[in-house]
Design a protein that fits this description.
It contains 13 helices and four strands. The protein is α+β, with helices and mostly antiparallel strands and about 270 residues long. The protein is globular and about 60 Å long.
């Protein structure tokens, strides 16, 4: 987000933290997150409503009043408060409005994970599930196939993760499966991982290595990237023998390819040119 949307996101996040999440427990945070995800689904499905709520020409009081009427019998007063606060703010586009609502839902879902270690664990669980989905075509098909009901998909996710992952992970994976918002399942999971990382004021580096990295190597790599980017870096490491040797590191849109396979491919491109 940029400009006015970035400013609005900062303000609604501050009010969410101070007015709602400061007193929320683990269970209530996850419940609130689920309710806000319901609002995200509503805005995603109702195009006219979304555009009207994002129109800066419409009064903030009218926006919050309309959304409050739509939500009061569906979700808790806390969810209504947060949702109305979001739509009352100014956004550059309808997409930014829904993105902000989704962020509030993620922030509420992970509210109980206050330590860096807990957030690290959640990021790792999301990344591992994303890798499993990418490597298991039959599982991916079962979770993404059109015509399969949301309840069936959620049941499959629960069978896979219940008792094995944090409840917040279960909630976020369930949302990625049932309401990807035009993204692939992998993209939705990656997006949630980045939001969690931003919540912890860190970047996520996806590291692909031909062999497993030792704890010392991971620590030195993390420290080097932290110095380079000026912010704590969380490493998501994937062992990929096909790269032969070296490392491929992706931080946001930036890719550092130091793999042997990458150098061979570059040499082939130059020869072809």
């Amino acid at each position: 987000m940029r400009g006015i949307s970035r400013t609005s996101l900062t303000e609604v996040t501050r009010r969410l933290d101070e007015n709602v999440l400061a007193s929320a427990g683990a269970t209530s945070g996850i419940v609130l997150g689920g309710e806000l995800f319901q609002v995200v689904a509503l805005l995603t499905e109702e195009h006219s409503l979304r555009r009207w709520l994002a129109d800066q020409a419409n009064p903030a009081e009218a926006k919050s009043g309309l959304l409050g009427q739509l939500l009061e019998s569906r979700v808790s007063p806390s969810a209504v408060l947060v949702a109305c606060d979001v739509v009352s703010a100014k956004w550059s586009s309808a997409r930014d409005l829904v993105d902000a609502m989704e962020r509030m839902a993620v922030y509420a879902t992970v509210a109980s994970l206050r330590s860096a270690a807990a957030l690290d664990g959640l990021e790792d669980e999301l990344f591992r599930f994303e890798r499993i989905v990418a490597s298991e075509p039959r599982l991916r098909d079962a979770l993404t196939r059109d015509g399969v009901g949301s309840e069936h998909k959620l049941s499959l996710v629960e069978n896979l993760l219940s008792g094995k992952a944090d409840p917040a992970t279960l909630t976020l994976v369930g949302q990625a499966v049932t309401h990807p918002r035009g993204r692939t399942l992998e993209q939705a999971l990656e997006n949630y991982g980045h939001i969690v990382a931003e919540r912890a004021k860190r970047y996520v580096a996806v590291v692909r290595s031909a062999v497993a990295l030792s704890e010392d190597q991971q620590s030195r790599l993390g420290a080097a990237l932290t110095r380079a980017y000026g912010r704590d870096i969380h490493l998501n490491i994937e062992v990929a023998p096909e790269i032969v040797g070296g490392l491929s590191i992706q931080v946001g849109d930036e890719v550092i390819d130091g793999t042997i396979a990458g150098r061979i491919a570059e040499a082939q491109r130059r020869l072809a040119g």
